[in-house]
Hints:
By secondary structure, the protein is an alpha+beta fold. The chain contains 14 helices and 6 strands. The chain has helices spanning 8-17, 19-39, 56-60, 63-71, 76-80, 90-94, 97-102, 119-125, 131-151, 169-181, 202-224, 226-259, 266-303, 324-356, and strands spanning 44-52, 107-109, 116-118, 182-186, 193-199, 307-311. The radius of gyration is 36 Å and the shape is elongated. The chain starts with 7 loop residues before the first helix and ends with a helix.
Amino acid sequence: MEEQEIDLVELARKIWSEKKLIFKACGWAALIALVVGFSIPKEYTTTVTLAPEAGASGKSMSGGLSALAGLAGINLGDMQGTDALSPTLYPDIVKSVPFSVELFDVKVSDIKGELNTTVYDYLKEHQKKAWWGYVFSAPFKGLGWVMKTIKGEEPKDTSRVVNPFRLTRDQSGIIDDLGKRIEVEEDKKTSLIKISVTMQDPLISATLTNTVMEKLQDYITAYRTNKARIDLEYTEKLYKESMENYYKAQQEYAVYMDRNQNISLRSAQTQQERLKNEMELAFNVYNQTAQQLQVAKAKVQEDTPVYTVVEAATVPLKPSKPSKPLILIGFVFLAGVGTCGWILFGRDLKKEFKDKK
């Protein structure tokens, strides 16, 4: 079998002979990249960083083992803990339907002070698109207008009541949009939690970032203190009942003693001892439940997680999207590679295809 060798020098000469075509294609690609880059609406990203309180399991670990596990990307503190709500579930919580629905009515204002609305209305009515987005959507809007004209205008639902169990098409679309704009990440090595929100307005981005951070903290606090709060409510109930029983037994003993001060009958003394014992027993129960109540209150405080804001939200000054240099480099690179491929292989394949015909 004959061996086929690729002469790289010959390929380079062939490409260099068509350098004008390559430069021309790259120039057109750069022009198109600039048009695309300036047509895409600007978006701003705000990021906050939280440091959660270290758990008891994390404190009991040795420093060397924890460091080695961190290098491997493993958080042994979370593995040893009994908390089912680990930071790895935070992104799913933020993107869940109930959490997103709570963000619908959050009041936001733009940086220019011209807009004062809710998150739902902002994402639905005040989003900018590139010019080709309007071009591509125009036929569908026209078709929808014609269908409404033929069928008649349907009454719009203006109740604005959101039922998470049965969402409308618009509400489902807004929830999907929020899920794409809100990001929650956990650093496995440092256990830091980063929350990022991307919006077309910098002030709205910063405002919504703060709101998401606060609601996520409230959600985690409610989850982790749920058992302790239930125990506290039950202990408070027992405390009130034991206090009423003690006061009742104390009153009965005092009334009996007032009525039988000068009576020396054995039966009266027996009744006196019984009432006194009941009063002391009620007092002991009352005292124990009072102590348990204080322990239950302390347990709620102990289970309440504490988050330290390492990096607070600030209004971004520069847009995060689109990256015009990256778009320019990508278009020019693709144009250069595509033109070189056409020079080396495309022309020959086209010529062979014509010759076969």
